[in-house]
UniProtKB/TrEMBL annotation:
Essential cofactor(s): pyridoxal 5'-phosphate
Pfam assignment, any one: Aminotran_5
Function, in words: Catalyzes the removal of elemental sulfur and selenium atoms from L-cysteine, L-cystine, L-selenocysteine, and L-selenocystine to produce L-alanine.
The protein's name: Cysteine desulfurase
């Protein structure tokens, strides 16, 4: 039997011959996701949660079923712990504004890793400025590991919140979330996990991890843009004030004030992205149909193939660990004498799509001693032939830039 060509499930990949390996930025959408959004608008296009007529009730049903799908996907205890947002960034800002500003005080410490995407750094810088809390960094090794002694030294009795990515969007390394949660909870701190790069590529179990908050985006999981998820423990969410106020997040309103709706609607002001939620649920079902065992095996094989070949390219340096299995589909690299924007442009001329720049992780790149890097990021629907084309094109870049090699 020949291996199934997953590219056939994706309209853009069927129609476009581009080698798309910028999946850490956004993934492609399979037919089933596009059909789920279309189905919502064709069969239930009304405002969810607001009407008692059949169309509105159908919209509400699809929206709440999507919430239950997400709940089961990340193993949350209750669907009330699932808040729909626009993306990971909004989810993390929600925690910063609603939990951080309400619970942190002058002298408290917020611990973040140096590997954080700006979305899991800037909100905590804001909280520190406004509350007088102190921001501390977990500094990783050049390979991207967080040694036990670093964790134990940084997380102290003063620590009230730890923010960490489960997977680095530059190095691809998997951070020791379980260990961080255990240390933080022993000190009475809460843990906020950015799962934007992990949820599409590996099982995420919020109950087993015992995380307090966890965020991810639909678009990196092959779902629609404009839909994201925040998981929060129910007891924490109950005590938090709303992030946004307006329609639908209230129980009643008077001239003097308002009574807020119960979870999860307290945090979902205004007309919700119900079609996006339906699309996200379809993406999750698609992932579950394939299975993470298959997804992880395929992506590790592609990463290994790329790294083995890239290591043979003169003047090319891979960021992070030498072991492909520690890159989670992400390979970031530099080429001596060539700016990553030029690398990206040359690859693009060969029909290969990669990301170049600081990847919204400037503190990490500065810490590693580079200003910018090129990043290739693989999904299970990529092929060995695409990896070969990428490496062959990359190997010619210095020559094409006039270096003669």
């Amino acid at each position: 039997m020949t291996a199934y060509d997953y590219r056939q499930d994706f309209p853009l990949l069927r129609e476009n011959k581009t080698v798309y390996i910028d999946n850490a930025a956004t993934a492609q959408r399979p037919d089933c996701v596009l059909e789920a959004e279309k189905h919502f608008y064709e069969t239930a296009n009304a405002n969810p949660l607001r009407g008692f007529y059949p169309l509105s009730l159908a919209a509400t049903e699809q929206y709440e079923e999507a919430r239950k799908t997400v709940q089961k996907f990340i193993h949350a205890k209750s669907s009330k712990e699932i808040i729909f947002t626009r993306n990971t960034t909004e989810s993390l800002n929600l925690v910063a504004y609603s939990y951080g500003l309400s619970n942190l005080r002058e002298g408290d410490e917020i611990v973040v890793s140096i590997m954080e995407h700006h979305s899991n750094l800037l909100p905590w810088q804001m909280v520190a400025r406004q509350t007088g809390a102190v921001l501390k960094f977990l500094e990783c090794t050049q390979e991207g590991t967080l040694p036990d002694e670093v964790l134990e030294a940084a997380i102290t009795e003063k620590t009230k919140l730890v923010a960490v990515a489960q997977v680095s969007n530059v190095l691809g390394c998997v951070n020791p979330v379980e260990k961080i949660v255990k240390l933080a909870h022993e000190k009475g701190a809460v843990v906020v996990v950015d799962a934007a790069q992990s949820a599409p590529h590996m099982p995420v179990d919020v109950t087993a991890l015992d995380v307090d908050f966890l965020a991810f985006s639909g678009h990196k999981l092959m779902g629609p843009m404009g839909i994201g998820v925040l998981y929060g423990k129910e007891e924490l969410l109950e005590k938090m004030p709303p992030f946004l106020t307006g329609g639908e997040m209230i129980s009643s309103v008077t001239r003097e004030g308002a009574t807020y709706a119960k979870l999860p609607h307290k945090f979902e002001a205004g007309t919700v992205n119900a079609a996006g939620a339906a699309g996200l649920a379809a993406a999750i079902r698609y992932v579950e149909k394939i299975g993470f065992d298959t997804i992880m095996a395929k992506e590790e094989a592609l990463t290994k193939r790329a790294m083995e070949r890239l290591k043979k390219v003169p003047h090319l340096h891979i960021l992070g660990d030498e072991a492909p299995e520690n890159h989670t589909g992400i390979v970031a690299f530099t080429i001596e004498g060539v700016h990553p924007h030029d690398v990206s442009e040359i690859l693009s001329s060969d029909g290969i799509d990669v990301r170049a720049g600081h990847h919204c992780a400037q503190p990490l790149l500065e810490y590693l001693g580079v200003h910018n890097a090129t990043r290739a990021s693989f999904m299970f629907y990529n092929t060995p032939e695409e990896v070969n084309a990428f490496v062959e094109s990359t190997a010619q870049i210095r020559r094409r830039m006039g270096y003669g090699e």
